[in-house]
Amino acid sequence: MKVLVPVDNSKVSEKAIVHALEQVEETNDSICFVHSVSDDVSIEGEQMYVDLERAQDLGDKAIERAEQISQDFDVDTQSLLLRNGTVVEGILEATEQYNPDRIYIGHRNFHETKGSVSRKLLSKSPVPVTVVTEQMD
User: Fold this and answer.
1) Which phi-psi region, left, alpha or beta, contains residue 130 (left: φ > 0; alpha: ψ -120 to 50)?
2) In whole angstroms, what is the distance from residue 76 CA to residue 31 CA?
3) Which of 43, 66, 74, 89 is 20 to 30 A removed from 115 (C-alpha atoms)?
């Protein structure tokens, strides 16, 4: 089984990374971390940025953090940093490129007025999506 994990620089993203790594390690499967740099916004912790150069740097940091966390697990990993129109479009592009069996994504209700990435992904993804929340342990 192949798993795709969209990552940003949030705590709930790290929870999704760990949750996916635990699942993948048990089954000897592979995982791909993806960060989609959006034309409209990028997130660092609880702050949003529209500067594309800054967003690219934050994406690099998110991927680096995911790879750092994965070193504690016996899992084959890959990473993708994509630039797309929206975050969801980037994740869907990564889904086409990597062809995962499942997606694990963190959800924190940060963009209540715009709708969440995880909610949009649930309706558009061609593969099952596991949503990891801040309340999960």
Assistant:
1) beta
2) 6
3) 66
Residue 113 confidence class, pLDDT cut points 50, 70, 90:
very low
Sequential DSSP letters for 55-81: HHHHHHHHHHHHHHHHTTS--EEEEEE
| Side chain identity, residue 11 | K
Structural domain that includes position 106: 2-133
Give yes or no for residue 135 having a pLDDT over 70: yes
3-class SS shares of the chain: helix, strand, coil, % to 5:
40, 30, 30
Give the mean pLDDT of 16-21: 96
Which residues have a Cβ under 8 Å from the Cβ of 118 and sit 6 or more positions away?
105, 106, 107, 129, 131
User: Has residue 129 got a pLDDT over 80?
Assistant: yes
Q: How many CB atoms lie within 10 A of CB 45?
A: 11
Q: What is the CATH number of the domain that holds 103?
A: 3.40.50.620
119 close to 55: Cβ distance less than 8 angstroms: no
- Say how many domains are in the chain: 1
